[in-house]
Amino acid sequence: MSRKGLGSRIRDYIVENIDNGKWKPGDIVPGEFELMKLFSASRMTVHRAIKELATEGLVYRERGRGTFVAKRIPRSDLLVVADIAEEIRGRGADYYSDLKYLAAEPQSPLTAHVFGEGAANSLARSKVVHCENGVPVQLEDRYVDVRLAPKYLTLDFTQTTAHKYLMKAAPLMKAEHELTAVLPNSEQQYFLNIPENEPCLLLRRKTWTGERLVSYAELYYPASRYTFGGTFTPGGGANDI
């Protein structure tokens, strides 16, 4: 069997044992010599497979001690507009949402800048904490033009999400993302249950249906609990959004 084939088999063996829960975060992974014997592979092949998994964040290595299963940090695809409830459940985790605020939003410098003066008296605002296995992973602070989403202020956020409703009420035609790092204010820290010195990843997202702006959201993720990534294919563009 080729070296490449052996490397893939070793990776699959380690990943399978992590994914099925047999090896939990902090557990030690079989050493290089044990894997060499198990797969009749060279040390270089085993070393390369483990190094790749370490680069991907699935395992970590401690000099003189060995290789250990890393704590899995949820990851969202930056190039895709997705429902966080479906993301969390898709990872096999429990999803829970906690609505903190839902009301009509008066015009402010922010809403006038984002939506324009013509949207005055037509906006709603919601603040929802999304939890994975009981741990807050996202604070969604969203503004919505209710002329395009008339039932927004009556939504039951225990049964649906803003994303799911808006995809039906005002189908997504275009999205704009901006990702930055911020220190959250005291309210955001409280909602996310994080200390005051914990930074967050802030994803600002605008979505349009046709030529009309439907929603502007500020999505806060504790940096220790979440990460982002994406796949780009030269000549093929980014994943569809």
How would you sum up this structure, described in words?
It is built from seven helices and twelve strands. With 241 residues, the protein is an alpha+beta fold. It folds into two domains: 3-69, Arc Repressor Mutant, subunit A (Orthogonal Bundle), CATH 1.10.10.10; 75-229, Chorismate lyase, CATH 3.40.1410.10. Strands 4-5-6-9-8-7 form a six-stranded antiparallel β-sheet. Strands 1-2 form a two-stranded antiparallel sheet. The protein has a two-stranded parallel ribbon with strand order 3-10. The radius of gyration is 22 Å and the shape is elongated. The model is unreliable at 236-241 (pLDDT under 50).
Structural descriptors:
241 residues; Arc Repressor Mutant, subunit A; Chorismate lyase; 2 domains; two-stranded antiparallel ribbon; 7 helices; 12 strands; 28% helix
Q: Round the Cα radius of gyration to an integer and report it.
A: 22 Å
**Low confidence ranges:** 236-241
Shape field? elongated
Q: Estimate what percentage of residues fall within beta strands.
A: 25-35%
Gap from first CA to last CA: 40 Å
- CATH fold naming of the largest domain: Chorismate lyase
In the CATH scheme, the class of the largest domain would be Alpha Beta
Q: Any guess at the CATH architecture of the largest domain?
A: 3-Layer(aba) Sandwich
Q: Would you count the extended β strands for me?
A: 12
In CATH, the homologous superfamily of the largest domain goes by the name: Chorismate lyase-like
- The proportion of residues forming helix, as a percent range, comes to 25-40%
Structural class: alpha+beta
User: Order of strands across the biggest sheet?
Assistant: 4-5-6-9-8-7
How many helices?
7
Number of domains: 2
